[in-house]
Specification:
It contains 15 helices and 5 strands. With about 375 residues, the chain is of the alpha/beta class. It is elongated and about 95 Å long.
Length: about 375
């Protein structure tokens, strides 16, 4: 009796021995602790990369090569002396492009082919910068020009032909609104995946278009109408922001289709770690490391900044290239998502929404009419 009702029976068999290392690993892989542990390391690495990428490109911007128009006698001694002094002072190359007239050189500024104009006079030089073409580049030239002129004995006059708007004296507002569109774009796609998981592919694309249009309108309205920081060409700026936000959202959706729950890793790497620092928004192209300066133009953040910058300051010389870049990323992302939509961790069976409504609201039309089941 004591054996049956007193002491607990001794464990035996597989339940009585400690689990093996293989069994522990199998249990760990099936638990929520594995993805949580992986995320701890991913977040730590991402934090270091985030700080490193922005510090590398933005903390100490250094001129590498500055496209500069030259108007005047090409063999002028004081013109050559000043150009050589500038290159030595900046430790950079002035890529000199000769223009027949000042009007032609100004057209080069409007087309964003050059960042400054060096006008060689009889007794000195005039250095015309364009703050709107690149605030940091203009600042570097404005600071170095008079010092170099004094050092080489050449009188120098510095002018800003294309100043920034008063509400954006450092030229960062366009970067910030493009950054907002990029980040809210893929965050919106993440939220759709979490809170509207049942959306089918076409519905998911449609809702991405909707939040892109509304979100872009909100960004432009706040910056222009509410704060007055920028005088935007409203419709054009709104549509650029909307295309940016849609593209960013679809990039995440593409990666979510390809690699599932880890889609945030390539999205963050492409759009934030690489795309934003190389966009030319916070640091102008000539001051970026040369590789990043070239790569950035082919990524959505750089294309967005480029299109927005031209729309605001060089409206008569808008280029098609940044729009092709944004549209290309959007189309590729949509095509990948649509082609492998069966792999996307979302969607629902055909008719699931209707059947769910029937269950929630009582008998469906067939049941009410006395069809099968009546």
């Amino acid at each position: 009796m004591s054996d049956q009702h007193g002491d607990h029976p001794q464990p035996h068999g597989a339940h009585g021995r400690p689990p093996t290392a293989a069994e522990r690993w199998t249990a760990f892989k099936k638990s929520p602790f594995l993805p949580a542990t992986v995320l701890v390391f991913i977040l730590a690495i991402a934090a270091g990369l985030f700080a490193g990428s922005y510090t590398y490109t933005m903390a100490n911007p250094t001129p590498r090569h500055i496209p500069t128009a030259v108007v005047g006698p090409p063999d002028s001694p004081h013109g050559k002396a000043f150009a050589a002094g500038m290159e030595k002072a900046l430790n950079a190359s002035l890529q000199l492009h000769e223009y027949d007239s000042f009007a032609a050189a100004k057209e080069g500024i409007e087309e964003q082919e050059v960042f400054a104009i060096l006008r060689v006079r009889d007794k000195g030089v005039e250095l015309d910068v364009a703050g709107a073409a690149g605030a940091q580049v203009a600042q570097v030239l404005e600071q170095a020009g008079p010092k170099v002129g004094q050092a080489v004995g050449v009188p120098v006059e510095v002018k800003d032909l294309k100043p920034l708007q008063e509400g954006d004296p450092r030229g960062l507002a366009l970067f910030y609104i493009s950054l907002a569109a990029v980040i809210i774009g893929f965050v919106g796609a993440i939220q759709l995946s979490v809170h509207a998981r049942g959306l089918n592919p076409l519905e998911r694309i449609a809702f991405t278009v909707l939040y892109a249009l509304l979100g872009a309108f909100a960004i432009a309205a706040v910056v222009d109408w509410l704060l007055g920081a920028l005088d935007l060409p409203f419709v054009e700026s709104w549509l650029i922001l909307a295309l940016t936000m849609f593209t960013s959202g679809m990039v995440f959706t593409m990666f979510n289709t390809l690699i599932g729950r880890w889609a945030m890793i390539p999205t963050w790497g492409l759009m934030v770690l690489l795309g934003n620092p190389s966009s030319g928004g916070a640091v102008s192209w000539p001051l970026l490391p040369s590789v990043l300066g070239h790569i950035g133009r082919w990524l959505p953040p750089g294309a967005s900044v480029n299109a927005q910058h031209t729309a605001v300051y060089f409206g008569g010389s808008q280029h098609v290239f940044p729009f092709l870049v944004l549209a290309g990323w959007a189309l590729v992302s949509c095509a990948v998502f649509w082609t492998w939509r069966h792999r996307h961790p979302g969607g629902r069976e055909v008719g699931a929404l209707t059947s769910g409504a029937h269950k929630a609201g009582g008998p469906g039309p067939q049941d009410a009419a006395g069809a099968p089941g009546a």
